Each structure stands twice: as C-alpha cells, then as structure tokens.
Amino acid sequence: MTVVFHLNGKLVQLYKPDPLTTLLEFLRQRKLYGTRVSDGNGIFGCDIVTVVSWDHHANKPVYKSIGALHYPLVYCHGKQIFTVEGIGNKQMLHPIQEQFLNCESFQCGYCAGGFTMAMYTLLRKDSKPSEASIMEALDGNMCRCTAFHPIAAAVASFSSDIEDKEMPICTRKVPFHPENEPEFPSELKNVEVFDYEHEQISPENGKKLFGVKYFTPKTVEELKNTLKENKTNLKMISGASSHQLSTICDNSKASEYTLLSLHNVKELQIVNQKEKHVELGSQLTYADVMEFFKGKSTKFAKKLVETLTMFRNTPLRNAETIGAGIAKRGDNDFNLILAAVNAQVQVLDSADNSVSEVSVVTLLNEKIAQGKIITKITFEEPDFYFFTKRQRRHANAEALVGCCVAEQGKQLQIFVNNLSTAANAIQIQKLDVSKEQFLAPADHHQMKELVNGKLTFDLTENSDARVYGKYKSDVTSNNIFLAQTRYKLDHNIAVDPEYHAALSNVEEQVYGKQLKMPRTERIIPESHRKIVGQPIISQTLKAKILGDPLFSADLDEFTQGVSHAAYVMTDRSFGNIISIDLEEAKKVPGFIAYVDERDIPNRVDGNIHSGIQFDTPVFCQKGENGWIVLHKSQPIGLVTAKTRDAALKAARLVKVKYDNDDKKVYEQQLKSGKVSLNIEQAIKNNSYLPNTGVNDRVITLGDVAEIDKADIIIQGENFMHGQDHYYFETHNCIIYPLENGGMKVFASTQNPSKMQFDIAWNLKEQMTGVKHIQRLAIVKIMQIPYFNTYILHFVDQFYLTLYIAFYKAIFCSFIFRVKNEVSQLIQYSSY
C-alpha cells in the first residue's frame, strides 16, 4: 500500500497517494521546479525527466525520457527518477550541464531542464551516441530563443561521429564517465505491485470529499474479475500521455469511483510475429513497437521504424500506448497505418467479459463504446507499404494531412486522414480505387482529378476550415502521387526522373536519412578567436541549467495571499454585447470582484495597448450598440476570486447577452456582407484594422502601378502556417504595488520601455511610477493584426497562464485554461 521509488538518489515512500496525481505535480510540491510545463501535451519537452526501471529478463536497467506532465505518480513504484536538480549542483555540474554552460546554450532557460534530462537519458544508455541517436533523443525538445546552434554545439561534443571542427561555437569538451553515475538500487528490483483505496479529505472540515479504489491487475483474468466486481463509475489509465485517462462506466454524482490501470497486465504487452501475422498488445508503447521492428529485416519493418521515428517525439513514444491512441482517435500517424493494413482490434466488453473483434477503421470513425477495452491489435505484414504526411510545424509533428498505401496480395488499400475537420479525432477516409486507377495518373494534376472525385474536402464558403480545403486537396493528391511513384519504382515500372528526384528528397530529407544538427561556420579568423566570437556566459545561466526557480510559477512569494482571476471572453466572432449579468458568478464562494474596460483609470483613450499601431483593445470597448466584439475569445472582463478554481467557475457563470443571440438576427448579420470568417472574406469586405495615421503598415517601394505594364506578371498566394517561435514566445507578467506608490513589474517582454509606457497609459500615471521591468515567465500566443481578423493558435489542452494587477489593488494572478478540441489554425474577425 506504499508507493516506493528513488528520486534523485533518495528513497521516497508514499502511503496510498492519490492515483491521479502526476509526477510533475509531486515534483513541484517538493519544490523541484526544474521540470516545467510548456503545453498540455508535452510537445515542447520542458517536463522531461529520466525514468529508470529494472529489466528482469535482460538483468539490466532501462532508461527512458518521460514527460512528467501526464506520468502518474503511482507509475514511479519500483523505479528510479532523476530530475535536473539531481544530476549536478552548484559546486559540481554534471558534464552535460557544464557543456551547456560552456556553449552558452540557453537564453531564457525555460527549456534547459528538459534538454538536459533528454541528453542525460541518452548518455546513460549510450555514452558515445551517434549524431542520429542524439537527433532522435532530442526530438521532443523545443527552444524558443537560441535557434538550436549553441545547444547542438554542446550535445555534439558527446557524439561519436561529429568532428570538433564542425561545431566551432564551443571548442572545449567535457568528458562523460558513466562509471560515476548512480547504480540502480537493489531494493527496487523486486517490488510488488498492489491495489489500494485512497480517500481525499477536506482540509477545512475533515470530511471525506471522494474515494478512489485503485486496481492494477497483472493478468487478463484479474482484469476480468475487477470488471466483474466494479460495474459503476469505472475509469481507466492506459499509458502516460494526454490520451491516458478514459471513462468506462460513468456516474458523475458518485463520490466513489474505481480507477483501473492496465500498465502491468502482461497479456496486453505482448508483441509477436509468425511469418507475416503480427500481434500487438494494446498496452505497448510506440517505442516498444519501434524496438520490436528494429530487429526485423523486412522492408515493412524498416519503413515502419522510419515512420514512427517521425511520429510525436521520444518522450511521448515512451509513454503513449497504441490502445489509448486508437480509443482516443487522436491525430495519430500509427492509426492511419493500421487502417491501411486492415488491422483488426480485439475488444473486451466489461458488461459480460465477452471478447469481440472489430476493424480499426470502424473504431476510428465511430469511437469505441463505453464499457469496452481494447486488448490486442492484429494485422498481416503488407507486401508494399508507403506512408507520408504534411506536418504542422516540424518533422516529427502529427500529420496535418497524411497518406498511407499498403498492398497485401492483390488487395491495395489507400487511406488518408484530414485532421483539421475532426473534433479531437482524425477523420479517416478511404480512397476507393483499383490498382489500375491508382497507377493510371501520369502527373500530379491527373492524380488530383482522381482524388477530388473520390474524397471529400471541406470547401464550403462560410466554413472556418475552408481556408484549408484547397490546401488539403493539393497535399493529399501530392502524397498519393508520391506513393504511386514509390510503388512503380519497387515494381520496376518506368518513372519520370523528376518525380523520382522529388520522392528521393522526401524520403531522404524528411524521414531521417540525412537529418543533421545545425552547423555553424567559423567566420572569425583563428587569430581573433580568443577575443571575438566566443560565448559570453550569462550570470543566470548556471542557475537555469540547475533548475533554480526563476519563473513566475516557481515563486513562493506569489503563491500565498493573492487573488486569482480568470477571463470572461466572447464566444463568437462578431456582434455587440448588450448586457453582462454577474448574479450567478457572485454566488461562487470566494468571489471578489469583476472588472472590465469601465474600470480602467484612463477614461479618455485608455483600454488600448500600443501593440504595433495602438489599435488593440485590452477589453471589449463600448460602442453605440453595446460592447463591440472583434473576435472570438476576446477578453470582456476579469473575475477575481480567492482561489483559481473559484475564479474559473465564476467566470463561466457570467451571463453575456449579445444582440445576435436570436438565430434569425445572427443569420442576417452573416448574410450582410460585413462579417468576415476568414482572411479572404476580410479582404473582400475591406475589413482592415483602423488606420490611425501613425505607423500605418503600408510599405511602398518604387511605382507599384508600373507592375501592370510588365511583359510577364507572376501572381499567386503563399499561405504561411504558424511557427514554433510564435507558440513558444514568453508573455507572462506580474505586477504588484510598492510602498512608495509605484509598482514592480515582472514581464517577459523584449521591450521593457514599451511595457512601462502601456501600463502608465492605461492607469493614467507617470511612467516613473513603474519602477522595474524584469523578464520572466512563459505563455504562447500569436496575434496578426493586419486585417480585422485575429489568428490564434493554441495547442489543445494548453494551459495559458497570465498574470496582471490593477493600480491601487492587491496583486492579482490569474490562470486561464484554454482547451481547443481541434489543434488547428482558427480565424475570427468582426465587421
């Protein structure tokens, strides 16, 4: 009944912990702040730790990079956990930390802990890794500040196949001695798994809030018995990613529920292959699948490993199970592959413990019913297999548009996914064509005609997703044409050399054969290297790579005695707000106040932050017909409360009435020609941001009218997707009053003077009253104010953390949780 593990070399024993507590929550309770949160899915790698388990078959430790954000604390039982604080200290840095310091690898340092632990895990597995191994190990880490060059220089020094002259940023090398690292504790090698009951007690009155029965069966038979004895309010943990928790039987009013963890069921972790027949247990992680097929020599095995290397990232592949991926129907490359190879899924029904088999395509398109558990996936290894995708942002991102072609015998199957039209699930579409039809198109245009006649793309005029329609059609056709080219080459059918070259570029550049870390040329003469071009070590970098608490969420002085606030935001992209009702919000225990544009001290021309053109309101502004709505999720006001949960609850209870609540009025406004739901409509409707006469964003070079007289005119459109630097930009702010009437500001801005001006402008105070502007904290948001259209991109379940305070008020920190069911570019505008 006691969870036992080692944390940074020290024994930890927890009696009946809450089984839904995550490792990240536990670490931060222990004030180990070097493991951080950047997004709700673990895509950016700030939450990476090293998890070591004991392999009884091989009689050796197994090292894995794991994201602590979703890793259940109970999974730590019998394991060894290392965080960035546990591998080095101020007196003696770990070689990885020392090399990051030598190369001045980080600027803000928020990602430093994740990079350090990912590299530490790799070195524990292989003290002389190849460049390819380093690339794979760090594919789950993102850096906003440094463009990766100084990071690459640091990690390259540990590589077995990169010469020193290739990385001239940092010429010093620090040796790594694996024999100096701690061994796996003998007392953890034979710990037993167990079930227990946990009770959550109210700290205020000592009453029981809820109870959890935690079960971790070791066999399918034990699993069936647990299901038989627990028929109501049953939840299940599968893996350790954002897809891990699902509800089997739900009774939301119950104060007790059963939590079933599948990670110890041996039969659900099988991986077998007899000739071409493959069996995969549902609790295998994607890393497990990769490891199995790395030992196979078939073309399919080789291609599958290449494909999975570009799926998500190493920490997520180590944590997420293939069963959870199917059940949650996420934007999952592997699901598309399973569809193409006609995989069958074995399902256990908790109602009567019966077992049935269903096509994976059926589950992906219809969703698995409550009360059923995926236990096994089977398929026949195909004779031909080709997978390609167009990613959102980087090579290992999930497919925005994916394509998989597989042939078994005479049966050819082609499946594509269409992420942006799916509600938190991929939309699987089958291209129903014969082999002859597949091979017939002679070029991309002919393939596009074939594809558009068979598949459905969202091209409706008023759809927010319409902007992607043509793009998805083009990309899907291109993907299938690449598959056709590979098929012809494998079957000795003549191929145009130009198409062969295009395919080779995709296969070699995208799928890892030639992926390398960035090199930096030596542009400074050797005679001047001691003076010019050397890294200047910042004063705070050492603290950052040791995980010291330097960010807003880490500061103890701001965690006690503060008011929390949450945004009240618009739920539509146009119209006017005619009333705001606070009655229900005020009933929430802990409610303090509500503020909006009426409370901003500068009543003349306040409620505006300068941005680029002094045109962006802080809150919805009052117009003749009410508060004007410019875009969806626009801040209307702030609710403050004594706790974060109370603030969020109260904000949800604020009733906002719009002039277009009536469906007929809404439709009339849509048809008015004044509403723009995408950029094209905004341009057509002449819906631009107001011209202020100051710094209008019109750049003119030469006589534009002369272009019309040119002999040859080339025109077209270039659609630019969001970039990681937008999402990872740091924009937190903490403001609190000083005793002398001024205020101190912690901000992530790169323009402290501008921040100082904006605060003074809205508060109608002298700039000298804003005493300090210091960089701090993290959040991700993108706003493009070129048209009267605002473009926001949030990673789904991403936690957007903001901090603000108003003059002559106590410090207010507020946390706003943004959950976007479909992680895609969303466009909103006004009229």
Automatic annotation (TrEMBL):
Keywords: Membrane, Molybdenum, Oxidoreductase, Transmembrane, Transmembrane helix. Gene3D superfamilies: 3.10.20.30, 3.30.465.10, [2Fe-2S]-binding domain, Aldehyde oxidase/xanthine dehydrogenase, a/b hammerhead, Aldehyde oxidase/xanthine dehydrogenase, molybdopterin binding domain. Residues 207-384 form the FAD-binding PCMH-type domain. It holds the Pfam family MoCoBD_1. GO terms for molecular function: FAD binding; iron ion binding; iron-sulfur cluster binding; oxidoreductase activity. The chain crosses the membrane at residues 798-816. It comes from the Eukaryota. InterPro entries: 2Fe-2S-bd, 2Fe-2S-bd_dom_sf, 2Fe-2S_ferredoxin-like_sf, Ald_Oxase/Xan_DH_a/b, Ald_Oxase/Xan_DH_a/b_sf, Ald_Oxase/xanthine_DH-like, AldOxase/xan_DH_MoCoBD1, AldOxase/xan_DH_Mopterin-bd_sf. PANTHER family: ALDEHYDE OXIDASE 1-RELATED (PTHR11908:SF132), XANTHINE DEHYDROGENASE (PTHR11908). Belongs to the xanthine dehydrogenase family. This is Xanthine oxidase / Xanthine dehydrogenase. It comes from Hexamita inflata.
